Amino acid sequence: MPLISVIILTWNGIQKGLLEECLSSVLPQADESHEIIVVDNGSSDETVSWVREHVGDAVRLIAIPENQGYAEGNNVGIREAKGQWIVLLSNDTAVDPSWLAEIAAAIARHPDAGMFTPKILNYYRRDEIDNTGHIIYPDGLARGHHRIERDDGRFDEEREALSPSGCSGVYRRELLEQVGPLDGTFFAYCEDVDLGLRARWAGWRCWYIPRAVLYHKYSATMGGYSAFKVFLVERNRIWSLLKNFPQREILLSPFYTFYRYLMHLKGALSGQGAAGKFAGEFPVWLLFWTTVKAILAGLGGAPRILRERRRLAPTRKLSSGEFRELLSRYRLTAVEAALKE
Fold it and tell me: Under DSSP, is residue 125 helix (H, G, I), strand (E, B) or coil?
């Protein structure tokens, strides 16, 4: 049984110029204690044939006939993985030469941990943080902690984090068996936050390991700002909220959401943040209409999500007060959520 299974989900990764560099940075680090699994998520390019020809037996290749999304695509790999620990690695990354060894060392240092998140840097500006784990707004929206801040030594201390980024999350197999894998109905976005919060409820801790470094080509796989991305993020943060937040926070969340929307409107008009970037490419009315559709879809899925919440109740070890303290410790502000890129 290998210590670590690295799962690399790819969709048209050769055509997009992503998978080859990702694999070339990971494969030299693998030995008998690791396995590398490439899950092809219904690519229409030559990814499957390229992996077979150029990588061969160095990886386990799983080809899915059609794109099942980031969440369910990774779940296919999780079900096939044999490792005691599972690493979900996006194919739009390149990892540092000691990345895998540092993950293994952190596992040895923290035998009771359930999750790890590495230091993720901007691929194109390597002195800039992509994220060091998650922070979360009171309505369920999350983003990378310390995003676009300079990597100037302030983030070199190993510490606890809320939860890992889906770009390179490390999860104990026992944790996934206890709280379940990624929620496939999310398709993409926020599924990593949902999994992390479920694990935190169950008492598992997450550690940020700054010596495990990788470089991320932000949104290179799914693309940048689009109506589809807005829809998925807004719908899925509602599902994550309903599944994981204490009841009092759910009741208060519409007020926080309204204030965040005001900040997004400010961003759209001033060219700041994600809304400003979106408004620079698309009409503002499309942003409004997409958000409305996402809210309706999120509420439409509420019955299923609430059934999931009840099913997960026996796995919870934290009190509501302890979970609120976590949300407070890793809180994202509305200004940062809306006006920071």
Answer: coil
How many separate helices (H) and strands (E) can be counted in the chain?
Answer: 13, 12
State pTM to two decimals. Answer: 0.95
Question: Could you tell me if 197 and 145 are in contact, meaning their C-beta atoms sit under 8 angstroms apart?
Answer: no
Residue ranges of domains in the chain: 1-91, 227-339
* Pick from 293, 295, 263, 259: nearest CA to 276: 263
Tens of pLDDT along 287-311?
899 999 999 999 999 999 999 999 9
In our burial notation (b when 16+ CB lie closer than 10 A, e otherwise), range 68-98 reads bbbbbbbbbbbeebebebbbbbbbbbbbbee
Rg (CA), the chain: 19
CA angle (141 as vertex; 139, 145 as ends), nearest 5: 125
Question: Which tens digits make up the pLDDT trace of 41-99?
Answer: 999 999 999 999 999 999 999 999 999 999 999 999 999 999 999 999 999 999 999 99
Tokens standing for residue 324: 């609120």
Could you give the CA distance from residue 292 to residue 113 in angstroms, rounded to a whole number? 39
The answer as to CATH 1.10.760.10 being correct for domain 1-91 is: no
Q: What share of the chain is helix, strand, coil (3-state, %, to 5)?
A: 50, 20, 30
Alpha-carbon gap, residue 235 to 76, rounded angstroms: 23
Buried b or exposed e, range 316-327, using 16+ CB within 10 angstroms: beeeeeebeebb
